[in-house]
Every structure is written in C-alpha cells, then in structure tokens.
Amino acid sequence: MAAPLTLGVMNANDKVKFESSIARLRHLRFLGDENSKASLCLLLDEIGAIDPHVPFLEKDREGSELLGHLSRIVPPYQDRLVAKVCLLISNFCGKRNVILSTTDLHDVIHFLTDSLQQCQTFVYTEILNACAAACENNTYRIEKFHDTLVGGQGILLQLTDDTTCEDEIVLEAVHCLAAFCTIKPHEAEHVEVQYLSASFDTFVHLLHRAPHLKMDPSMKNKLLIYCFSGIQNIVLLKRLPNVELGTLFAAVRAYLFFGLTSHQMNIPSQLFPNVVTPYDSLASPRSHESNSALTKPDGEDMSGQNQGKAGSATPSGDSSRKKQKKRKGRGRGGRGGGDEDGGGADDVKKGWNEPPVNDEAGKAASISGTGGNNMLTEMETLPWDISLLKVSSSDSEFSDTEGGRARQQKAEAVRVRHSALICFLNIVRVVEKKVMFGYWSSFLPDLSSTSTAQQTQSLFTVILKDPSPKCRVAAVASLTCMLEATRNLLAAAQDVTTHQPSPAFTTFSAALGATCREMHRCLLQALVAENFNSVLTQIIKCLANLVSNVPYHRLNPGLLTKVLKQVRHFFNHKDPNVRTACLTCIGAMVGIRPPLMEVSQLIRPPVPPVGVNRSAHPGDSPLFRPEDAAFLLYPSFSMPQVSKVTEEREEPVTEDGGLLINSTKPSQGEGPMSQGEELDPKRQADASEEATGCAAPKGANVLKSDITSDEDRNKVRNSKEETDSIGDANLPPIIGQDGNSGTQHAGIVSNSEAAMPESTNKIINQLSSVQIIGEETSDTESGIHSRSGVASSAEGRTPALAASSGEATPIYKDQTLQSMARETSWVIKFSVKNIIGQPDTERDPCQVKSEGQQRFEPLPIRLEALQVISNLVKNYFPVIRQSVSLLRDLIQMCLEDTNPIIQLHGCKVLDEFTQALHREVQEASLAPNHVIPVHEILDFWLYLLGGPLPKLLAFNPDVSSDSNNLVRSAACESMGNIGEEVFARLPRPRQMQCITLVLGMVAEDDKLIKAAAVRALGIYILYPSLREDVLFVLDAATAILECVDAKRNSKSQTVRFKAAWAMANLCDTLVTNKDSNNEEFLQEFPDSVLLKLLTCAAAATRDSDKISCNSGRAIGNLLRYMPAHCFLQEDMKDAIQAAVKGLIRNMTTGAMKVRWNSCYAASNVFRNADLPVDQPWTSDILSMLSKVVQTCSNFKVRINAALGLCALRHRRGYGSSITFSNVWTSLIGALESSENINDFAEYKYKDSLIEHLCGAVLHITSLTELSDLGTFRQNVLLKGHSFRTYMEKYVKLDLTTKSCTGIPTVEAVRQHLETLELQASCDDQRRSVQDLMQACLPDSESPEDKPPVKLTFKQIYD
Fold first, then answer.
1. Nearest residue to 208 (alpha-carbon basis) of 219, 193, 223
2. Is the pLDDT of residue 802 over 60?
3. Where is the DUF4042 domain (predicted)?
4. Looking at residue 1281, what is its pLDDT?
5. How is residue 978 annotated by DSSP?
6. Three-state secondary structure call for residue 819
7. Mean pLDDT along residues 987-1007
8. Is the previous residue joined to 733 through a cis bond, with omega within 30 degrees of 0?
9. Per the count of CB atoms within 10 A, which of 279, 760, 771, 929 is most buried?
C-alpha cells in the first residue's frame, strides 16, 4: 500500500505546483529584459517537467487562455523563449488534448508563422511540431492562414524541399502538412481545393523522391508514414477532381513491399491503366543482368542466393541454418508465434542504400509456395506507439546492440508497409470501380505458378509472405474492396481450353480468366498457411467476395470445389468470427447467378465433398438447370416407396450415366481444425498441391492411408473422436459444444425435448436420430454396406466427387430416416444446426430439462446461416426439394423466436420459400412427377394463415416500433407469393382473410408496411378469382389511389412506385374484363372511380421515372377500357386531355423505359374500338409517334412507336390524307435511319425493328383510299426505291419467324392495290397505285437465282 500512497502524494504535489505555475504565468508581464526572460523560462521549465499525461487542467478554457496569452506576449524573434513556448503548445495540444478557442488558435498560429520567419533554423523543429499539434483537426478554423502555410509560396511547402532544408526540418514540415490535412468530410468545404492539391502533390513527390534522399533510415520511414497519412486524409475528402492515379499508384505499390526484398527500390514515374504495363514498376535497373540467376534450375548451386536471402554476407553454413530456422517458423501453417510488427526488414538499409544482389530475391515476388519466406520470424513483438514517430535525440527504445537496431528497422518497415496498405485501401474505396479495374494488372497476378515467366510482386506477396498480421489483414481488406461490385467487369473472364494450340497473343478474356484462377489459388494457399484468427476471417470473407463476382459459368469447373474443401476445415473453429465468415462463403457459393452444376453437385451429398470430377460429357453445359435436378439428382415425389427410392439411388452409375454420390464415411484428417492447431505436414502438402491445381486420381484417397506408427494411429483415432456424432460424419458438431467437436449429445437432446419448442424438436429429430458406430473392423464395414444396399467392393464405387474413404460408416436406427438423411443436403444440416437452439451441455441434463435452458450460437452466425438457407432455396430449390418438411419446421421455429431480428430473417427465408413453391406450381404441368404436389403447398399455406402470419402481422407491444415494422413488412411481402392456383383452392374464409389482412396493412402509417401491402394488392388484383369481383376491385382502387397520392406520401418514393405498379395492374384487370365481355362488371364499375384513376395517372406522368413509366401503362389501359359514353363527359374530356399530354411528353423525355412504355400505351389507346376520331389529341399522338420512330436512338422505343402507328384498324382513325401520308413517309424514313447505329447494344434489335417497320408500312398501305393517292405519289417517288430493298428481304421471311402479328400479308396488300387500280378514275391515280405496287410488292425470285434469307426475330420488352 506504500507505493499508491506515495504516488498519490506526488500527484497532489505536482498538481499544486502546476496550478501555481499556471497562475504566475497568467499574471506575468513580459517586459523584454533579462529578468522577465529568466522568470518566463523558469515557469515554462516547471510546467514542462510535470508529467503531461496526468490531467491537471479542469477546463480547456484555462489552457487555451494560457497559450493565447503566451503567444501574444512572447516576441517571435526570441529563439530560446520561442522554443520553450512551442514545447508547451505541443504539450497542451498534443498530450493534454486542450481544445483552443478560435481567438486563441489564431493567436497561436500567427505566433508560430511569425516565428518561422524570424527565428533561427535550429528552432524550426520545435515550431513545426507545435504547429502540427495546433493545426490537427482545426484546419477549417484557420482559413486566413491557409495561404500563408500552403499557398503558392507557403511556408510549409518551402520547408519540405530537401535540397535547401535540413532533414529534421523536412520531416517536421511534412508532419505539420499531414496534420493540416486532417479534415473531416463535413469540414472540407472550408478548405479550398488548391491547398489540398498542393499538399497532395507534395506528398506524392516526396514518396517518389524518398529512395534518393540521403536521410537517416529511421527519419525517412517517419517521413513516409506522414506522407501516406496525408494522402489518405485528402483522398477520403473526395475533393480533388483530377488525381493522377498512375503516379500515385506507382509510389504506393512500391511501398507495399518495403523491406520484404533486397531489391533496390526503383519507383516508376507512372503506372498505366491497361492489361500489360510497359515495364515492371518494381524491377531493378540491373534485373536483366540477374535474370539468368533468377531462372536457374533447382539442381544448380544456390549458395549465393541463400546468402542474399539472409540479408547479409554470412558464411554458407550460417545461411543454411537461417534458412532452416525460417522454414521452421513457417512450415506449420503459421507466420511465427504471434509476430505482430517485426520481420522482413533486416534489408531495409540495403533497400535504401545498397545495389541489388544477384540472388534469389526476385523469387520473393513469386507466390507459388508457402514455405519459402525471406523474413526472420523469431523476434520480439513491438507494439505500435505514436511516441516512436516523434523525433528524439537517441534511440533509447531499442538496445544499442546489432540485434536491437535490426528489430527497430524491422518494426519501422512494418509500419511503413501498414501505412501504405491502409492508404491503398482508402484509395480503392474512393476510386470508381471501373477506373480501378484498369490498374488491376499492377496489383494482382495474371500468370499461373507453372509459367516460366518471372512474376512481379502483387498484393498476394504481402498476403502470403508478410510476417506482420496487421499488414496481411490490410492487404486482404484491400483485395476484398477491389473485388466488391465487379461482377460486370469480370463478366468477360474465360478459361483457355488446354487442347487448343497456344494463340499468338493472350486475349483480354483469357488474361482475366487467368487472374481469377490465380486469385483462387493464392487465397486458398494463404488460408492453409494462416493461423491468426483476424487474418483467417478476412481471407474467408475475401473468398466469399471473390465467389460472388467471378463468372464461373465461363471458367473450367473445380474452383468452387477447392474453395469448399479448404473452408470446411474452419466450420468448427473456436472463433465465432471465423465461423461467420465460413457461412458467408457458403452463402456466396449457393447465391451464384446463374446457378451452376458444380454447386448442385457440391451441395447434394449429405456430407461436404472433397473434390469433383469434370462431367463425363465434355459438351455438357456448366449451368445448373432445374430439369437436370429433376431427372438426375432426386427421385419422384409420386413414389411412396422410400425403400425403392433408396435402392434406385444406390445403384452404381457408369461413366455415361451421370454422377454417383460418395459414401458418408469420414476420411482421415478431414475433421475441422481448431484454433491454434498446427497444420499437419501431410495436410499442408495436400492442400498446397490442390491449390496449385494438381487433382487427385479418380477413386484414389486424397490423404495417405498407410499408418505406420502408434502415434499416427492415435492421431487418427483422435480425429475420429472429434468428428460430429449427430448427423453425418463430416458435418460440424451441433451448437453448444464450445467449438470442441467431440461429445455425443443424442441422448441429451432426447431428454430435453420436452423443454424445447415443438418446431425445434421436429428439427432435432430429423437431424439427430442417427447413431454412429465408433470403431468397425473390415468385416463389420462390409456388413454395413450389405445392410444399406451399397456395394461393399471399393472397385464398384468410383466416386464422382473423389472423396476418400474412411474407417467407419454411420449406422442409422431406421431405414426411412437413412433415406431422408441421404436426401438432405449437408448445407441445410450445417445451417440448421447453427440456427436452432441446442441444450446447454455444460449444465446437468435434468436441470436443462426442468428449466428449458437452451444455448444459441452468436446472432451473426445465426443470421448468416439463415442467409445461406435463403440463397439455397432461391437458386437450388430443385436439388433440396426433399427437405421441404425440414425447411417448413425451420421457418416455423424462426417465426416463433423471441428475437425480432431472427423473425425478420425468417420472414425473408419464408419469402424465398414461398416464391419457390409458386414456381413449383407453375412448373407442375411440365414435370408433374418431379415437383411438390399442389395439395402439400396448399397445406403449408393453410398452416401459415392459421396462426404464424396473422401473429406476425399484428403489432407486438413488447418489441420496439422499428423492429415491429420490419418484421411486419417482411411478412406482408410473403403474402403476395401465394399464387393464383393455390389462392383459388383456399377456402373462402381464408381468401377473405388474405384480402382483409392486405387491405388493413395498406392503411398503416409505416412506409415499409404500406409498400409491401400495396405490392401484394397489385398481385391479388390479377388473380382470375378476384378480378371479376367488382367490390374487391373498388376497394383495391381506393387503397391504391391513396398510396399513389403525392400529397399523402410525398416522403416515401417506394410506396408511390409500388402503388403506381399496382395501379397499372388494376388497369390491366379492367382491360381483361372488357376483352372477356364481362358485361356485369362493365355495368357495375362506376365512372367516378375511372375518372379518379385517370386523373391520378395523368398527375403521375410528371413524377420520377419509376412512377411515370407505370403511369403510362395505366393511361394506355384506361383509355383502351373507356366506354364510348365517357368520351362525351366534360370532366372526362379534361382528364383525357391531361393524360394524353403527359403521355406525349414522356415519349421524348425521361429514361428509355418511360419512353417505350409511353409508346406502347399509345398503341393500347388506339385499340379501343369506341375511340372518337375527331379529337385533336389523336393527331397529336400520331405526330409524336412519327417523330419518335425516326429519331430515337433506342431501337426498343422505335419498335413500340411502330406498333402504335399500326395499331389503328380503320382508315378514319388516321384523320386527314396529309396525316396519313406523313405516317407512311415517317415509317420509310425510320427504315432508312435504322442503319445508323450509334450504340452497339442496339444491334440485336435491328432486325426486329426492320420487320416491325415493314409490317407497319404494309398495314398503312392496306388502308389506303383513292383520296390518299394524290398526296402519296410524291412521297412514293422519293422513298419507294429504298423501301423496295427492305421489302425484298421481308417477303422471304418464313411466317413462323415473324414476331409482329395482325399485319396483312403481301398478297392481301396486292389485292387491295389491284382493287384501287380498278376503281381509279384518272391516270394520276393509276400511276400512283402502280408506283405503290412496285415499291411494296417486289417481284419474287426463284430459289435457283437467290436462296431465301431466313432471319429470326425476337421481340423483347421490359
């Protein structure tokens, strides 16, 4: 107790002394004489002697006033006093965190700038250090000093010139400049861009110049760290419009490998954003001279290279010992025993000052192996501290021995690399993905490890070889950020087939495919070698990001198999973050779009597979198709005999008969790897071999099965004991085992079933009703195979998934459960076991049963597992169709969970599950024996409507409002997935319940609930059983109009967008009832609601694109439905005029989807037989369509405009002869302009456009009357020849290939023109008819003269 008392007395004395000194300083009057100087120096020394980390200032105002007072009374030319005041400023602002008021801050900065101009240079370091402490986070408050500090002739910019200033001054000037750039985003508007640009250019210039500075290495390292900090702060502000990324990346890339190699640092002036850069940015000038040494065979003498690896000219024996020591540190899957900051920097001085050595250091850039590390790993861990960056008079932090200096250099090199990596990470986050993609070749490898070409250094050099975990984490995080949202950029990646000869050049697609494959190989290699939990988590997350963006359907199969084989070792890792990342990776695999056959093979077996062979048929598509799963991967639902299904699935499959799932026996060494467990050398060799692309022979064991020693036998026995005893052998243990997979809990689960929810009991019964036999002899194993109907001969089972056989096979209690276990995917089992609660095995089973205590995995793990289930149901439902009952019970358990987040994600799974069931009903006619029967889907919906869904949709007072709304909106989304077939089979009370629930949710105030409800209402309105119900349609129209109203929902764009979509669906329903001649509906539907709908749709045409495109649909359908008497009503006339005006405006403005929907809506309007022909807005629509069909750059818009121009069935609808002639002429002009394609994406619509235009011209020609021939003749003479060339192609089209319908045939047009010729009363009319016939009806050619051209047109609409 003496020490604390003494410390307390000392602190009390220091406080009294500190307060006394502060009080005397405040009242000190500085007169400039020697006495005043001495008194001031004494007081400043007394304050500086007190520990700065002990807070004695009760208020920041006291310290701020003191510094402001000193800045005003001390002359800036008194060097000694200025130095002491600057130390006090650094003490208060940097260590005591005193916040200066604006007035005092201005006085301090003014004092410091004046001192820099009047004091001697030996005081500059203290002044600049104080300026850095004062400027940090205060840049926006000192605007009037910006020009003085960093302007054209700014003080700080001048002091960063190493040619005129001392090294210490340059270092502190850069420090101050970095502090000046510490600006928060909301404060950036107070700093002009020119000052940020000047600072940025200074930092980049210093990074390029640093290798040539004759500065102490420690000072140079601090300079680099300050530069990276300043660049990072400026980049995050996003204020610089034109950043030279090539120059910046050239410097940053060089320092990513600082201290990892003995190469002399040579930074190029710029990196170029293309696939192949003109030079290697990190290559040594003498690299050409050392190429011969770098490419020596393994058998040649490498003693000189080993000497270069060691970093010093040691004898060969010492070099060999060091090499063995390095291998020992990295050979077991780790990077040393917790080495955080050291390693790899004993060549730092050599990297700065010495020329490169002709050694094997160039191979440090190669990432083909995990064991060849160039860094020492047996060193002390040096925690990063800001004090190490401060300029000090001695290096007291390290000993003066050679080892101490080496450790200091290594620690500094780690900090430089880490700063460069963090800076690079933030640059990648800010730069646009498309721009960053151009620089990928500078940071990622694109050559395989088997290539003879020398590989350059990349991010994987840091990931695989950096001894510092925090550097590896930063490198993996940078790679993850680079891969985010790059699916469109990687879409061109493609593998080069091996049987084809090597091309003369490497295509972009091939280079991109090689990069994707190399990223897989290197990340898997890093995963095998890593043993730090934080780095493991980042690597697995990076793999998940890679899996989400790579186009696997264009690459050779096998990559995902390798990823799964390595990731599965961490399924039972003790760190929950690692387990969460594993689930994220699995979710990314099953979430790949389009679905893949390889993934369907991986998720199908009941145990995680360890390999996959390529398809027996080379021409098979890599994409997963539901019909493949329907006829190959699972039996028919209509077969009630489960044993028959089992026997059929157990028959051996020949090579031409598809795939054969491997047995469920665990293989040696396949158990999960726990935290801290060192990699087995055999497993490491196997993983390294797999990562380099070496596949095991078919039917061979991946791991060696010969066990020679008792120690090996014990290892195998322990490995078997650690496998999961609930479920299949290779599945992770049930939750609640503390990460140690070992104890069998089947009995405990059964004893505590009464204490668990009913849904949880169902799930556990389905997953844990199995029994594992621990040890079996070969005779027992043979008996097991004979009982289960599996051939016991190893030769008879050549697994398509290349899994190795183990020593024990699980035995199930019941044959039916055995069949079900085989049909249940291991992904579902693994995910479910991470979701459901398990008995707390650390407590007494009786107490667990009585209290009902359960143990759950952490929430992130449960959520990721639910996301895996959701992706699996969405993409691979045909493969997991046999697990419907298990998924149903899981959804029930999630909906009954007390945690609203689990309920929310359970509702998302329910949404995907109900969508999959809806697809099953739609596909029932295609494969009735391979889908879930409709009656089972109906039973599921009856169960949902009987309790869980109404309970979720009701307000829960025990949960917060936000959580309530999220869960209720997600549950309401599922209400729209019933489907018309299932809805029609529901009892009438249940149908009314669905309608009542949805209509009630539309009236909610929350925007999420309202949006989900109006979407469901828009789906219900299309159901045949509801669209003829006038009362329901009226209720739906009232609810939808309230949601579309901009005044009521002005703040919720989502609600109005979905309401506009529902309104368009409602108008579709009106048209359907009219086309079906539903007279009762037409009579009972009131005109007032029709007027409201038209007025609302007209107002919505001026809204955003998402809303206006649906409002155009609604207007077209409403005008098509409108009865004849409505066109005579005055209120309706005004509404029609406003709606048509908005429709015409949207034909030429807004997004392309808005335009083609408006053009298509016009064609809908013209399909109304009751449409009046004497209205002026009819000619306005025709004029706008004639303009759009010629001038719009989007061919889909022009196709819909052509449909609108030929939608009128009678000649009177086109009005006058001039309008009629202009329509014909505009169509010919559209044909001529169809050859002008500005966007290559429009090329695929060209043929369809020409076909629709020719059909429209034929339709117009077929309606021509004698009165129109006068205006036609001049246009026919001008345009007839060009139209004839298109008609020659059109007449040779097969009728089955034409996509436009309702167009008269050429023969019908010929007959009409011949009739007109007979009716002609003058020669001018006859010549006009003859010209028309010559243009529209070309002479047919015989097949011998010209073979017919067959074109296939496919019309695509959004």
1. 223
2. no
3. 415-599
4. 72
5. S
6. helix
7. 93
8. no
9. 760
DSSP code, position 1003: T
Q: Is 491 left (phi over 0), alpha (psi -120 to 50) or beta?
A: alpha
CA proximity to 1227, closest of 1239, 1238, 1214: 1214
- Is there a contact between 435 and 245 (Cβ–Cβ < 8 Å)? yes
Question: CA-CA distance, 356 to 287, in Å (whole number)?
Answer: 9
- What H or E segment, with its residue span, contains residue 1332? helix 1323-1336
Instruction: Tally the C-alpha atoms within 13 A of residue 847's C-alpha that lie toward its C-beta.
Output: 5
Q: Are 1116 and 1135 in contact (CB under 8 A)?
A: no
DSSP 8-state code for residue 623: B
CA distance 883 to 1298: 45
Rounded-to-integer distance, Cα 39 and Cα 1009, Å: 74
Which residue type sits at 434? K
Main-chain dihedrals φ then ψ at residue 1187, nearest 5 degrees: -75, -45
* Tokens read off for 337: 């025993």
DSSP letters, 227-287, are HHHHHHHHHHHT--SS--HHHHHHHHHHHTTTTTS-SPP---S---SSSS-SS-TT--TTT
The CA distance from 1010 to 992, in Å, is 19
pLDDT tens readout for residues 493-535:
988 765 556 666 788 888 899 999 999 999 999 999 999 999 9
Contact 1118, 1090 (CB under 8 A): yes
Task: Please tell me which of 307-321, 783-797, 1339-1353 the model is most confident about, judged by mean pLDDT.
Answer: 1339-1353
| C-alpha to C-alpha distance for 709 and 706, rounded to whole angstroms | 9
**Are 839 and 854 spatial neighbours (Cβ–Cβ below 8 Å)?**
yes
- Provide the residue count of the chain: 1358
Place of tokens 């007279």: 1079
Most trustworthy range by pLDDT among 28-37, 463-472, 747-756? 463-472
Q: What is the phi/psi pair of residue 854, to 5°?
A: -125, 160
DSSP code for 881: G
Q: What is the pLDDT of residue 32?
A: 72
Closest by CA to 226, choosing from 193, 188, 264, 181, is 181
Q: Which amino acid is at 1267?
A: S
Q: What's the CA angle centered on 575, arms 572 and 578, to 5 degrees? A: 75
| Tens-digit pLDDT profile for residues 1008-1055 | 999 999 999 999 999 999 999 999 999 999 999 999 987 776 678 899
Of 386-400, 504-518, 986-1000, the one with minimum mean pLDDT is 386-400
Copy the structure tokens of residue 72: 């005003």
Mean pLDDT of the chain: 74
Mean pLDDT on 419-438 = 95
**How many C-alpha atoms does 509 have within 13 Å on its Cβ side?**
10
Euclidean distance between CA atoms 402 and 413, whole angstroms: 17
Check: CB of residue 213 under 8 Å from CB of residue 162. Answer: yes
Instruction: Please write down the HEC assignment for all residues of 516-580.
Output: HHHHHHHHHHHHHHCCCHHHHHHHHHHHHHHHHHCCHHHCCCCHHHHHHHHHHHHCCCCCHHHHH
Q: 1266, 1218 in Cβ contact below 8 A?
A: no
Residue with tokens 């440090």: 364
**CA-to-CA separations, 423 to 183, 417, 427, 862, 1276, in angstroms, rounded:** 16, 10, 6, 34, 68
